[in-house]
Design goal:
This protein is α+β, with helices and mostly antiparallel strands. 26% of the residues lie in helices and 34% in strands. The protein has 3 helices and 8 strands, in the order H-H-H-E-E-E-E-E-E-E-E. The protein has an 8-stranded antiparallel β-barrel with strand order 1-2-3-4-5-6-7-8. The model has no long low-confidence stretch (mean pLDDT 81). Residues 65-130 form the C-type lysozyme inhibitor domain.
Length: 137
């Protein structure tokens, strides 16, 4: 009969024997099942052109611009209302109304204007020179 002193030794021996069992099963790293899971993971997030257009036209999209004059603009493009709210570094917020642009964006209201195409934009604030900006977010 084991004594209390031999109990830790017997426990350690039992753990050692249990560890000598079968090797742990590893997940497959190649093969058709793995390739299929990879394809499903990539295509699950893919949206059609119509879905992307719907998202752009029917939601508010926030973009951050850094300008050459050191200003940071946070712009909420409210496409359903055809407006943009520009928040300047100073904390001032300005609501601009969408104008028809040949291409790109054009928003303006009483001395303020935001025009651009792609990630480039020009910001004109009332009483200040226009500055070039670049979308960073």
């Amino acid at each position: 009969m084991p004594t209390i002193r031999s109990l830790p030794l017997l426990t350690a021996a039992g753990l050692l024997l249990a560890a000598c069992g079968q090797e742990p099963r590893q997940a497959p790293t190649d093969g058709d099942a793995v390739r299929q899971r990879a394809v499903e993971a990539q295509t699950a997030r893919t949206r059609t052109g119509a879905e992307i257009q719907d998202r752009v036209l029917n939601r508010v999209i926030r973009t951050v611009y850094l300008c050459n004059n050191g200003e940071r603009l946070s712009v909420d493009f409210d496409n359903p209302r055809r407006m943009a709210t520009v928040r300047q570094s100073s904390g001032e917020a300005v609501d601009l109304f969408q104008e028809r642009a040949a291409s790109g964006i054009w928003y303006r209201a009483s001395g303020y204007e935001l025009r651009g195409k792609g990630i480039q934009a020009t910001w004109t604030a009332d009483g200040r020179d226009a500055t070039d900006c670049r979308a960073v977010d």
